[in-house]
Amino acid sequence: MPVSKSAEKELRAARAKQERNKTIRTVTKTEVKKAAKVVSSGDIEASKAAVKAAISTLDKAAEKKIIHKNNAARKKSRLMKKLNAAAKPAETK
Predict the structure, then answer these.
(1) What is the DSSP track for 9-45?
(2) Tens digit of each residue's pLDDT (9 = 90 or more) over 31-59
(3) pTM for this prediction
(4) Domain interval for residue 62
């Protein structure tokens, strides 16, 4: 428990910040999962749109320092790797 008034205020501020960040973190995770699911379904055009939305969300979260920039880069890289692997067999047909 906080002892001083300033410690109480800092605790309130930290909790408010945590709540704000939690929603953005949740949306980011959801977008990444959606994109991965669409990529595995095989629809290339829908996959590109979903990956683009997920990358945008990751970039915004990293810009606001809600997730680390390297974490966002790693997730974007993995999504693009999946997308490229899914698109490759379609191109050879």
Answers:
(1) HHHHHHHHHHHHHHHHHHHHHHHHHHHHHHHHHT-HH
(2) 999 999 999 998 899 999 999 999 999 99
(3) 0.83
(4) 5-92
